[in-house]
Specification:
Elements (H helix, E strand, L loop, with lengths): L13 E4 L2 E4 L7 E3 L7 H14 L3 E5 L3 H16 L6 E4 L4 H7 L1 H6 L2 E4 L8 H17 L3 E6 L5 H12 L7 H22 L7 E6 L3 H14 L17 H24 L8 E4 L5 H6 L3 E4 L8 E6 L2 E7 L3 H18 L11 E2 L5 E2 L1
Length: 361
């Protein structure tokens, strides 16, 4: 008998996504995501079919612009005409409430909506915009995946929990507070969706954490505290169709592997350094802050700038054609300053801001 025979799955509700069942006693479902521009109907349709043939039982597409939302019904029609019935999941952020309102045919064509409660709006707009998306899911009879990312947590929730933790006689670590914030955001958002009228068996939860052990801890806590089904990883994204991200990530990784033996002999402790190369405006800045040094690259259609974060603080914004070379130099300087005791270069120092919010030297 194999070890797997002894594993007992948590009992969860079961969610039906256009005939694909998630949770309960159903087998684990495989979902992937296109990295095409969704507005390109031909390219996106072709990639969806390829993913379905490869075994993806659900396919997620980014719905980030009006053009993308307008293209979704045509993509669905072409897939149906070719005999490909794989359900489409719409990935929404910032403007999802508006797109679902303005493009009802998009809402109808999708089998599931994906919402990140940390990215649906800021301040007083957040609750209302989240409510609009849930109301649209109810109107069109769609299940919702509530996905929380520690790179884009609800800032107000996290700040409040950090403050409460600081007042405790024995405060928890910041990592523990962040884990709790992820769990609280996911479950709290699901309960709010139910209050708005979405049935409990129409909700799937997910959390994204870069560190594997942190991810396991978060999912164990989610499984302990709720019975919503849990879709445990994040694929590539249609928001990062540019090859800049992949090329720079590979270049930096190759450089780190080559340099690490040299650095390890010269700079004790450097082997613990974490470097993040992110390619998404949605979660990139937040996740870059969680590494020792990180860069958030622009995706397709985004402003061609790349902010750099050192020990959680934004230090400089890189532009132009030499981003890779400049970032590599910043990593070198960080190693020498942090692990070698050398003076910190200017681009390792956090930006200072005036009262008008403009960065100054």
């Amino acid at each position: 008998m194999s070890h797997a025979d002894h594993i007992e799955r948590s009992r969860t509700r079961q969610v039906d996504v256009s005939g694909v069942r998630i949770g309960g006693s159903a087998p684990i479902v495989v979902q992937s995501m296109t990295n095409t521009d969704t507005a390109d109907v031909g390219a996106t349709t072709a990639q969806v079919r390829e993913l379905a043939v490869a075994g993806s039982e659900l396919v997620r597409v980014t719905v980030n612009t009006a053009e993308a939302a307008a293209a979704v019904p045509a993509i669905r029609q072409r897939l149906d005409a070719s005999g490909c019935t794989v359900p489409l999941v719409g990935d929404f952020h910032f403007n999802g409430h508006k797109l679902l309102t303005d493009y009802p045919d998009c809402a109808r064509a999708l089998a599931k909506f994906r919402i990140n409660p940390g990215n649906v709006g800021k301040g007083s707009k957040r609750d209302r915009q989240f409510a609009v998306m849930i109301e649209k899911a109810i109107e069109y009879g769609k299940p919702v995946r509530i996905g929380v990312n520690w790179g884009s947590l609800d800032a107000d929730l996290l700040a409040r929990m950090m403050d409460e933790n600081a007042k405790r006689a024995t405060p928890q670590s910041s990592d523990a507070v962040m884990r709790e914030a992820l769990v609280a955001s996911a479950i709290g958002s699901a309960l709010r969706a139910e209050e708005l009228g979405l049935a409990g068996d129409r909700i799937v939860l997910s959390c994204k954490v870069s560190d594997v052990q942190e991810l396991i801890a978060v999912y164990r806590e989610l499984a302990r505290r709720c019975d919503y089904p849990l879709l445990a990883a994040c694929p590539g994204c249609g928001r990062t169709t540019s090859t800049v991200f992949q090329e720079l990530a590979e270049r930096i990784q190759t450089y780190l592997r080559a340099q690490m033996p040299i650095w390890r002999a010269r700079y004790p402790g450097v082997e613990t350094m974490q470097v993040a190369v992110m390619g998404c405006v949605v979660n990139g800045p937040g996740e870059s802050k969680l590494a020792n040094i990180g860069i958030s690259l622009p995706g397709t259609g985004e402003t061609p700038v790349a902010p750099v974060y050192v020990d959680g603080e934004k230090t400089v914004t890189l532009k132009g054609d030499n981003i890779a070379v400049e970032f590599q130099r910043i990593v070198d300087d960080y190693v020498r300053a942090t692990y070698g005791g050398e003076p910190r270069a200017a681009h390792l120092t956090p930006e200072k801001k005036t009262t008008t919010g403009r960065a100054i030297a």
